[in-house]
Amino acid sequence: MVWFPLTKHPLGEHEIIKLIRRYFEVMPEAVVPFGDDVSAVPVAAGEVAVLKADMLVAKTDVPSGMSLWQAARKAVVMNVSDFAAKGVAPQAVLVSLGLPCGLSRNDLVEIAKGLNSGAREYGAYVVGGDTGEASDLVISVQLFGTSRKEGLMLRSGAEPGDVLAVTGGFGKSASGLKALLSEGLFSVPPDLREGLLNAVYLPNARLQEGLALRDCDAVSASMDSSDGLAWSLHELAALSGVGFIVDTLPVAEEAARFAEANGLDVSELVLYGGEEYELVVTVKPELWGEAVAAVEKVGGNLLRIGKATKQKHIVLEVDGVKRAIEARGYEHFKSQC
Amino acid sequence: MVWFPLTKHPLGEHEIIKLIRRYFEVMPEAVVPFGDDVSAVPVAAGEVAVLKADMLVAKTDVPSGMSLWQAARKAVVMNVSDFAAKGVAPQAVLVSLGLPCGLSRNDLVEIAKGLNSGAREYGAYVVGGDTGEASDLVISVQLFGTSRKEGLMLRSGAEPGDVLAVTGGFGKSASGLKALLSEGLFSVPPDLREGLLNAVYLPNARLQEGLALRDCDAVSASMDSSDGLAWSLHELAALSGVGFIVDTLPVAEEAARFAEANGLDVSELVLYGGEEYELVVTVKPELWGEAVAAVEKVGGNLLRIGKATKQKHIVLEVDGVKRAIEARGYEHFKSQC
Question: What is the pTM of this model?
């Protein structure tokens, strides 16, 4: 239930993944390198199967007040977000459930309904799975879809000069989490409360935006922002071999007001909050207009926040003042770890 | 760490799955009905993507003395066994790991190596996954492969008169588990010890047998036996609308000797033990010879144990004595559930 900045842990999630990965022989025909948001395997000429697995553990991924329905739905949505970032529509969802003893029949129904909603909202179906007994509630979700190989929007591919953009404002989830986890410590303007909590309880994946961007072929690199905007920028930069200048912070209005009401640095909420499911993309400058139009056509927004640079620094530059954007974000683990 | 017969639990795994499934909208284009060993989704004309997810939770699925390498390998093998039963070669493995705090760097390496071994032994590769922190060690594995739609050997399809067969003797895992879990209570002939423990620690999936059977097109119904032989017979019978007469119990020699040394009923070990990864199949009688030859060609065995009947009873009939085979097997859950 407690979220810690990942830099504090001696062996954080990203380091564990890096360590483990070394012992996996690499599939020769793999289409997407390890470390991108999804995996992909050729199925036919030019066609790939796209696979994703991400696990929700109630103890660390479910903040207080979130219902089982919401937790189950979120477990699907956080996977769909990765598909969205690659421009792939999910078709099938598999779910492995680790169920604690105390769950009632009604709890199980809530979980089942949440899983179904998470899938159906994005056009997919739950097609199978497995249950077992565990100490924590564990909802392990797997997605399957297909894509043209060339259609996949990978993390690599950004070039200097590309437009850096996001699909929405940031900071709502971080504000909502602060409001939730430190009840009483922060002041929450009453008209903001529901919006901030919904950002945490009812996240949405930007699937329509991702599919629209794929269709207009304007994106050079893409990932979602579930580990925070700063983290996404560092990942995209590292895998593309570029840097970024961010000249416009994508501040969600609600986050600005929450920060103001509490004397917080809003850039901290925007850059280093996690569990925000926007897409972070780079767009070929000559196709910028088309990309914006494509995303707006499906009811979304594409906000320019800066550009990719040859210099490999990741910098926030506002009003002539430069500040490094650090490689940190949110990662969950138990307090006693 | 404790294994209980599934009939004792008020809401066992099978009942939970049945309950949850009711709330999932059914994918119109799904190729395999809910309740079979795998899921399948069309990807091209006549071609399907085959998907499977099964989760290993250390607390309930890992008996004492099993190493982390073995547990991780087993988590993959138990999924491969379901693919084997459908006649599908696994190509890609995804893994979501729930990791308790206490694991060392070396523990993580053991887990990674075990996952890689489990995949590579069967020609697949680990292509992606996710880690998070959990109270129990949770290894959630997903498999992907492709198949001709007609090539899939489903649980339904057995017809009266079909030959009932298995790919090996039964009872070793149940004997090994008894030896492990009740150290001192049972007498284990020294020359049996290693074989019985390996049946538990190092299970093998009958993938080559499954692929050979698919290729000779002789099988009318198939599933694996991970919940026990009796359970598999009841599942195949229910989904095919037939019954079975078993006239030859497939007793593993080691199980016979273990039973004899301990005054146990060997049929109990053979029919109601779990965690045994043989295939249970029905074969069209006119293709029986070809099926046997195909399996022997890949180094396996196909043992005739009885036949499918029009009458929907599941009966053991040896030396003219008939006995009902009950619908029970092994299911894991916590003692305090």
Answer: 0.93
